[in-house]
Amino acid sequence: MNSLDPQTPLNALYEAKGTVHNRRIDGPFRRFKWAMMIVTLAIYYVTPWIRWDRGPYAPDQAVLVDLVHRRFYMFGIEIWPHEFYFVAGLLIMAGIGLFLVTSAVGRAWCGYACPQTVWTDLFQHVDRFVDGDRFARQKLDAAPWTWSKVARRAFKWSIYLFIGFWTGGAWIMYFADAPTLVHDFWRGEAAPAAYITVAVLTLTTVTLGGFMREQVCIYMCPWPRIQTAMMDEKSLLVTYKDWRGEPRGSVKKAEKHPGMFGDCIDCTMCVQVCPTGIDIREGPQIGCITCALCIDACDRVMAEVGRPRGLIDYATLEDCEAEAAGAPPRPAWKALLRPRTIAYLLIWSSIGLAMLFALGARSHAGLSVAPDRNPPFMLLSDGSVRNAYTLRLRNMATRPRRMSVSLEGLPGAAMWTDLTERADAARSLAVTVPADSTRSVRAYVVAPAATPQSEFSFAVTTLDAARESQRVVTNFETPTGERP
Amino acid sequence: MANKRVDQPTGTETVGHEWDGIEELDTPMPRWWLWTFYLTIAWALVYVVLYPAWPLIDQGTEGVLGWTSRGQLAKDMTLADQAKRSVGEAIAATDIEKLPGKPELMRQAIAGGRAAFRVHCSQCHGSGAAGSQTLGYPNLNDDDWLWGGDLTSIEYTIANGVRQPEGDDRRQGEMPPFEGVFDTAQLTALAEHVLSLSGKAKPNRVGAQIFADNCTSCHGSNGEGDRAQGAPRLNDAIWLYGGTREDIARQVLRPRVGRMPAWQDKLDPVTIKMLAAYVHSLGGGETAVARGADPAAKVDEQP
């Protein structure tokens, strides 16, 4: 920030900068970024179209967040709302996973996998495709609004809109059966929420990816700030090795005054290729997403001028200091393994294992019991006492199942339901619960006159090969009001 | 205006006033804020044209869409009624004794009855339908019925009410007061005998004789009651007005009897049917006994 510029207030939190027109570069990191972009976009666009057979009673979409029926499907796993802690566990894993990645490879998430980075990269490729590389784009930006410029901008922005629309369009596929939704969407029969979501996501994608780009990373995203607190001298960074590069000077100058200049020839290629428009030679900074395109650029230049590669390179600050002091460069992969990384890995994988275990061990049948409180008990004409309960039977299997509900304890007691009569009373009853749903049963339990106030249980058992069962302890209230 | 100038350190123009050397910077509104503000004005203009907005002397401006909150409510209520119509028609087309044979329809009838019960019945019978012994409102959860506990009888009772002067004579039975008829010893013996019917006291000859002379015509020789007259069973564990000796003696001297409105004047037959299904489902419902000799027990189902 230039404090002498009268137009920029001293306390400004925002630095007005022109559009970043980053230059095309090729190299290993650029190719890795291409691969990551293809993989992440493919995952995003293709996932909802993967089919997964669950039988006739459940949707056949592999990944589906069914908000209407309150079910979450992910391949072989189905989660009900009461099991939302699994999603919380996934979020915790995602959080710790980010810590793990940061501890091991620094801001690799920011550089390669973050949606903001991937879409920004995509939009920058669109810019390059329509308007040409850096200098052509800069020239066009400065040019007056001729018809040809209007036509180019209209063409570019319509591609932006197209990308934004497909981004939003793919998002809604996760929330409904994808082929049906596409059909309904184009016929204007989909839910209003679908159109609104697509519109909103089109707008945000075009705004954030097409126009705001690096400003999202620098001004809006909390993650660079959090990461700043997690970085230390052992974190892997994209670093300019200033002890080697400084003072800067062109090849000609260096030839004229040998020994006076460092390796940096001040060609500014590292600045030109940077997608966030920073100068890495100023040191580690919040705008650096460590995408390493500057390493590709610098290595290329160093090769051309016949100097060793790695003037800008992945390195830890500790290694940099050691290297500056004369130690040989340490390979970057050695920075991957350190106690903190291993600790994060252990925490992350133990949460994952615990969740897998919980998923495998959970029961697909369940029972909850709500005793009537009004009235708590009922005296019958023969002097016996009746309590009423609302039972909710849960069948999480994707097929209808017959379940038996029986009384355990409470000698002499019997039960019937609101659809039967006391003459049908028995110690147990069988109920068919539809596939993947719950069924409410009102149960009347009658016990002989002398029964004391006591605890007993309802036990539910599935009448299929699985024989899943659950017991729920509840109270039997009597007029005596005394507990034994 | 006085001397406006640009404040050098901040680069912002001042408003041009100066008070004892203190000047105010004319910091412009953030543009996003201004544009949001203009947008709300534009929105308000459109809204004023489309929707009711300005209060006038008699009533407000109506808006070109013609929208009103009452109209919205009416529309929503109509939609809700339409959604319920098919169930209502199915229930209307089904005789009440046939309802248990259609479990899904029965379930819906019970659910509808539960809602109607909260509105029309809970004032006396309580939200849990447990009634009140002190106030004399019958408990509907138990298996003791004054006028019959099968679906048809319950529906008939709800439709015609109990002891309504203009109602039909099938729900009219009254108990005569016996004040001044018995002396204290006779009354005690009678109460003792009534309690003995359900095994809560020892039988005695004086009470048994009084009971045989005065009570058996309605309550039966063993106190089994008579549903045709609404005479309660005396040989069970359930007492509408209390089961102590004092309660029984008081009821003999100055009997209290309950009344219930005839709901067919206020509710449609479907609602009455659903209420009957709900009351029957509370746990004490009986199977309808085929009573060929009693065709009057049927209610006209046509709305």
From TrEMBL, chain A:
Residues annotated as domain 4Fe-4S ferredoxin-type: 256-283
GO molecular function, one term: 4 iron, 4 sulfur cluster binding
Superkingdom, taxonomy of origin: Bacteria
Keyword annotations from UniProtKB, A to Z: 4Fe-4S, Electron transport, Iron, Iron-sulfur, Membrane, Metal-binding, Transmembrane, Transmembrane helix, Transport
Spans traversing the lipid bilayer: 32-50, 84-105, 157-174, 194-212, 342-361
One term under GO cellular component: plasma membrane
Gene3D superfamilies xref list: Immunoglobulins
One Pfam family of this chain: FixG_C
NCBIfam families in the record: ccoG_rdxA_fixG
Name of the protein in question: Cytochrome c oxidase accessory protein CcoG
Species name: Tsuneonella litorea
Automatic annotation (TrEMBL), chain B:
Main location: membrane
Pfam families given in the database record: Cytochrome_CBB3 (PF13442), FixP_N (PF14715)
Cofactor (UniProt): heme c
Molecular functions (GO terms): electron transfer activity; heme binding; iron ion binding; oxidoreductase activity
Record's keyword annotation contains Methyltransferase: no
Keyword set, alphabetical order: Cell inner membrane, Cell membrane, Electron transport, Heme, Hydrogen ion transport, Ion transport, Iron, Membrane, Metal-binding, Oxidoreductase, Repeat, Respiratory chain, Transmembrane, Transmembrane helix, Transport
Organism superkingdom: Bacteria
Primary role: C-type cytochrome. Part of the cbb3-type cytochrome c oxidase complex.
Family: Belongs to the CcoP / FixP family.
Subunit structure: Component of the cbb3-type cytochrome c oxidase.
Name the record gives this protein: Cbb3-type cytochrome c oxidase subunit
